[in-house]
Amino acid sequence: MARAFLFNAGSLGASRTLLALSQILVLPVVSRYLTPSEFGDVAIAMSIVVFAQMLSDAGMGRSLIRQPSYDPAEWNSVFWLLAAVGTLLTLGIAALAPVWAALFDRPALLWLVAVLSVLPFLNALTAVATAHMEREGRFPRLALIRVGAGVAGLVTVLVLSVFGAGAWSLVGQQVVIAMVQSLGTWIQSSFRPSRPHNFVPLGGHIRFATDNIGVSLLFSAQRQGPILLIGGILGAVPAGLFSMSQRFLTLPRNAIAGPVSQVVFVRIAKAQAAREEVAEIYVASCRVLAVAVFPPMAVLAGSGGSLFPFLLSDTWASASVIFALAAPGVMIDTATASVGVMLQALDRTRLRLRMIAERTLLRTIAVAIALPFGIEAVALALTLFSIAYLPRYLWFAARVAPINGSAVLDAMTIGALASAIGWVAMLYSAQFYGAWQLLGLSCVTLLLTWVLAILPQMSRLHRAASILSP
């Protein structure tokens, strides 16, 4: 059973890692051809598009997966509904492009937003086909599709940036990734929609989707809010620096927490009648995520002061400070992120909506208070908020399953202690070594930190993998 979890989550994790790394590994090249202002423009443009992308499937794919049996008419009805939603979202975003450009007084945003508006439509078209593959457990195939998309996006951004496309190189990367993922999903999925007729009632799915729409909007506000506030008040250059740090900060969530969440959702959906088992699944996910995420984040935070300027050029040196200040909060958020997945799988979408609304409001207030003191203060405020809100976050988890807060903290402790050692080691080493030596030392330190995080709890990690196996 542990092998099944590792195979499914590992294949998805590897593909998402490549997809995320495809946007990280090119930065040493791209950052030398693009200015912080151009990065800021794309970050601001993507903010409104991300809102639409989260609305494009409204969680209906997850709702279909939860059904005990497969009804072709039901799946077909959901497909055509989402196709209509995706079309409306794309047209709406394109129409809002001039408004967005005027709001931020950045004329370049008009065409950036207009082109990026195609992303919600592509996402909506493939949502049902992707859900069908997940229901059949075809995670490795999904992984291969993402690998292909990542490689295609990598080539696109490199070629366009070298040939002087500026911000359009980043836009081209996003569009190519979405197109390749859509094409690959339709080729690999066995789902095929029939013509739009004989629609079945979708009341249950729509109720599920309504709550998820609220959650999606709030998630978007929570993630994009700091960039929008920074861009609107401090300008495009600070927004670009913050966006650069976010590209590294979101890597563990996209590459590791995302795949684990997909597997955890299916696992909890099957065990939803046994709340004790649900609690075990959640704590197991915290243990696995802490070991996977904490060490690389800590090592990069400790060495970032030297590695960011070395890899990206001196222009981006201050992004390392933003990363280091925000990293602890991201580590905590990523390790405990399965609370939302659990509430969704247990059909407690209203409670999930309430939790995200509360968290988004308080987090936005924290950012607004810190904003006058600069982007470094915003990064620190995000970490302090994550630490302060953790007890409340676990309180929501305990509403649906007998989850003990001390068990969650215990699941993260060894990973956190090992990572703290790695962080301090890199901070100390940065005083004595050059950039190339420090890069090699970071890789060695990361491996040793993982060893320190894994060996003392090997048996418990093996049990956690078995619990998470479908």
From TrEMBL:
Domain of life: Bacteria
InterPro entries the UniProt entry points to: Poly_Biosynth_Transport
Predominant subcellular localization, coarse grouping: membrane
One Pfam family in the UniProt entry: Polysacc_synt_3
Keywords: Cell membrane, Membrane, Transmembrane, Transmembrane helix
TM annotation in the entry: 42-65, 77-103, 109-131, 143-164, 227-245, 281-301, 321-343, 364-387, 407-428, 435-455
Keyword Transmembrane helix: yes
Cellular component annotations (GO), alphabetically ordered: plasma membrane
Protein name: Oligosaccharide flippase family protein
Organism: Limimaricola litoreus
Classification of source organism: Bacteria, Pseudomonadati, Pseudomonadota, Alphaproteobacteria, Rhodobacterales
